[in-house]
Amino acid sequence: MLPESFGGRIIYLLQQYGPSFLKGAGVSMWLALVGTLFGCIIGFLVGIVQTIPVDKNDSTAKKVIIKVVKFIMACYVEFFRGTPMMAQAMFIYFGSAYLFNINMSMWFAAIFIVSINTGAYMAETVRGGILSIDPGQTEGAKAIGMTHVQTMINVILPQALRNIMPQIGNNLIINIKDTCVLSIIGTVELFYTTKGVAGALYTYFESFTIAMVIYFIMTFTCSRILRVIEHKMDGPDNYDLATADTLTHTSGMYSYKERKDSRE
Question: Which cellular component, as a GO term, is one annotated location (predicted)?
């Protein structure tokens, strides 16, 4: 028998279906982490391609190829940013079987959908992060003989990564919540599990209260961890400026906090 009080029903559901809620939460977190990881890889690749410079001295063939590739990348970004993930899930999972006779497994389709959707958003983030770096960095790298690839890997991307780290965290948080739309293709994640529990006992309010608390715990924990990572990437406030020039001050340069006047 279900208890009559709200708190009693919450406790009853946790006792009876706690492992199911935890399993669904684990699936949601796993899909979000893997999808964000692959989405970041896609986003970095697309963002880098979109920022490839075209020099007036380049051959006509190279200019045409770069323009065509950039156009295709732009179409990909605009399409997946301009349509909801739920519609994308239906189109890819059921449409691929209907149009191309490609029968995707449910798990592959889920990861694929989250990845390409995240990749479209990350592509614009990476492009903006690269363009935010002072052009003097690129000019300096080229002045010492670096190629475009070497400049991107060793100079631009490390700085751009720090700038876009908050957006990577935002995409992870969004993906944790948006995995619920994958229930439409049969993915047994937290939302799907909650619907099953609520429908079995007609405890919709209590069941989704539990689900909301679990979603909040996952997103809040991830946001705190990402804040710590961002802080680590900032480096120390006070540091030595390493130098190999014997004519300069060998102990480096220091940054000290201002001291109050002892007479105050």
Answer: ATP-binding cassette (ABC) transporter complex
Cβ neighbours of residue 185 closer than 8 Å, sequence gap 6 or more: 89, 90, 93, 94, 106, 109, 110
Range of the domain at 199: 6-234
* DSSP secondary structure code for residue 202 in this structure: T
Residue range 226-263, pLDDT digits in tens: 888 888 877 665 555 555 555 544 444 445 455 545 44
Mean pLDDT of the 138-167 span? 86
Instruction: Tell me the CATH number at 179.
Output: 1.10.3720.10
Residue 218 main-chain phi, psi, to 5 deg: -65, -45
Which residues of 48-169 form beta strands (DSSP E)?
none
Q: Are 206 and 11 in contact (CB under 8 A)?
A: no
What tokens were used for 179? 């995995």
Give CA angle at 23 (112, 21), nearest 5°. 115
Q: What is the DSSP letter of 34?
A: H
Does 106 fall in a domain?
Answer: yes
